[in-house]
Design goal:
Layout (H helix, E strand, L loop, with lengths): L14 E7 L7 E7 L6 E10 L2 H7 L10 E2 L3 E9 L11 E4 L9 H4 L25 E3 L2 E5 L9 E5 L3 E3 L6 H22 L7 E4 L3 H12 L5 E5 L2 H9 L4 E4 L5 H8 L5 E6 L4 H9 L1 E9 L14 H4 L4 E4 L7 H13 L9 E5 L4 H10 L4 E5 L6
Parallel strand pairs: 4-8, 11-12, 11-14, 12-13, 14-15, 15-16, 17-18
Antiparallel strand pairs: 1-2, 1-4, 2-7, 3-5, 3-9, 3-18, 5-6, 6-10, 7-8
Length: 386
């Protein structure tokens, strides 16, 4: 039997450019890194585009201080399979693919129960930003460099587990396909998979960034009414209307709880989706529920955020609060379905791309996200055709 080279032995001189984070609130440094050849069960992907997500911002600004450095951020990516390692049989070189930031083992209790988004190996791999063997596939000299959530899409290439690669058919711009890998799958899945919204139900969406607008599009597909969008930014509220919201509330001018009560005739909404991750907005989502309603926590908060609410709102009136990780999605099934919805005009990915920037513009993209500018800023590695 041929011995399998150790990860350190698979660095054979292939290099790539990547934006490397070496400290909190420091500009990302564009560096030339070495990347390992894919090993057994691994896939090398040439990135075409990467969305810039609030989770990346949480790391960059110190909201999640336990993330190791140096690290290549980015986890919302799409590209072309460049090379595969042994024991890979589901993807092949040349295929266009969307990356999943939560590659599942397929063998743990959660995976076998059809919940790969709760894979029990994730705390020791994905959330430590290492591969299943506990090591990384990037290095700078002799220094190991981590890949955020095992992806690291702020780089020209990524070596990822096979289960983190979802091939898609047909021609779709990389800048749009990348969004499916996080924002769209999370938002759409929150409605279709986590909450399982019923046709005709009332809903409120608090936070209208990339995830929140994906929630709105999914609610529109489920014909919810009223469909209320809440944000503090006029341009995001305008986008929410374009994506299907029947009512919008400017939280900088009106109290969302009172405004939703007025729109709903004092009853509240059957579903409230919180898509920011702030203490105040999580508490609002619980407060605006009708009896029997469900609050779905989609946004990722900073580490240590605690919320307060009256438990009688739940115990006395049958209200529920659900956590939502990755839209409760099964990437090999859900990603192609979302691309099909886009191709058939039922999901608008085009309008979600606010700007396209080269890798050198990644700091600008993070700063814009921190200011709340735009819906999704996308790093594009190669010129894409519309």
């Amino acid at each position: 039997m041929t011995a399998i080279p150790a990860p350190s032995e698979r660095f054979q001189g292939r290099t790539m450019r990547a934006a490397v984070m070496r400290g909190i609130n420091r500009g990302l440094e564009i560096e030339e890194l070495e990347i390992a050849e894919p090993g057994p069960g691994e896939v090398l992907v040439r990135l075409g585009a990467s969305g810039v997500c609030r989770s990346d911002l949480h790391v960059w600004n110190g909201d999640w201080p336990e993330v190791p450095v140096p690290i290549v951020l980015g986890h919302e990516g799409a590209g072309v399979v460049e090379e595969v390692g042994s024991r890979v049989d589901r993807v092949a070189p040349g295929e266009t693919a969307i990356l999943s930031w939560l590659p599942s083992c397929g063998a743990c209790r959660s995976c076998l129960a059809g919940k790969p988004y709760l894979c029990l190996t994730a705390p020791d791999t994905v959330y430590r930003h290492v591969m299943p063997d506990g090591t990384t596939r990037l290095r700078s000299g002799d220094e190991a460099v981590h890949s955020f959530l095992t992806v690291g899409s702020f780089g020209e290439f990524a070596v990822v587990p096979e289960s983190g690669v979802v091939p898609i058919e047909g021609t779709v711009g990389m800048d749009r396909a990348a969004l499916v890998g996080c924002a769209v799958a999370t938002g759409f899945g929150a409605v279709a998979n986590t909450a399982r919204v019923t046709v005709g139900a009332s809903a409120a969406v608090i936070g209208c960034g990339g995830v929140g607008l994906s929630v709105i599009q999914a609610c529109r597909a489920h014909v919810t009414a009223p469909l209320i969008a809440v944000d503090r930014d006029a341009s995001k509220l305008a986008a929410a209307r374009d994506f299907g919201a029947t009512h919008v509330i400017d939280a900088s001018r009106s109290d969302p709880i009172s405004a939703i009560a007025e729109i709903s005739g004092g009853v509240g909404v059957e579903f409230a989706f919180e898509a920011i991750g702030l203490k105040a907005t999580i508490e609002q989502a619980i407060s605006v529920l009708a009896p029997g309603g469900m609050a779905v926590l989609v946004g990722m908060p900073a580490e240590g955020v605690m919320v307060e609410f009256d438990p009688n709102l739940l115990a006395g009136f049958g209200r529920r609060v659900l956590g939502c990780n990755y839209g409760s999605c099964n990437p090999p099934i859900d990603f192609p379905r979302l691309i099909d919805l886009y191709r058939h005009g039922h999901l608008d990915l085009d309008a979600m791309v606010s700007s396209r920037l080269p890798l050198s513009g990644v700091d600008e993209a993070l700063a814009a996200l921190d200011r709340g500018d735009g819906i999704r800023n996308v790093i594009v590695y190669e010129k894409e055709q519309s």
